[in-house]
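User: I'm curious whether this sequence folds into something compact or stays loose and floppy. Could you predict its structure so I can see for myself?
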Amino acid sequence: MAAAVEEIFEKSGAILKGHFLLASGLHSPVYWEKFRVLQFPAYTEQLCRLIASHFKKQKIQVVAGPTTGGIILAFEVARQLGVRGIFAEKEGSQGRTFRRGFSINPGEQVLIVDDILTTGSSIGEVMAAVTKQGGSVIGIGVLVDRSEQRIEFGVPLFSCLRAETITYHPQDCPLCAAKIPLVKPGGG
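Assistant: Here's the prediction. I'll summarize afterward.
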């Protein structure tokens, strides 16, 4: 499975090498540009099928993801599971919230999906938004878990691919020390 998932990312040109500023503020020599994969509906459907299949025996009632990549993933995983798919948007420095009429009923079982897991901050923000509305997070599904150390969320975590990728704090970055130009990819 891992080889097939990595092949999808390679075929779509989504694994970039260089010196990148991640959304977390960390630096990395590798960047996973998930939108190069998500532009292909067939790849997106295949990857989301892995997540949906993993959680299909759970009594999921809602699939939620963070903006922006999580919108596409929440929709497709929810479609495959036959449930609602919603997304949480940034709310300044206050984390994330559900807008546009999205809500979670108290006690609803929620699966959180996201694209690339590095520090877990986006997932944590969506978990907080779910909990604030009384929902129950029962699992997390991501396309790629690139975290250096496993992150514990208190619920089962499934990743289509585990690809530990080194990251650096800016002050400790050897790429900065080597004066390799820093690139800020993505739209964040």
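Summary: The longest strand covers residues 136-145. The CA atoms of residues 38 and 44 lie 5 Å apart.
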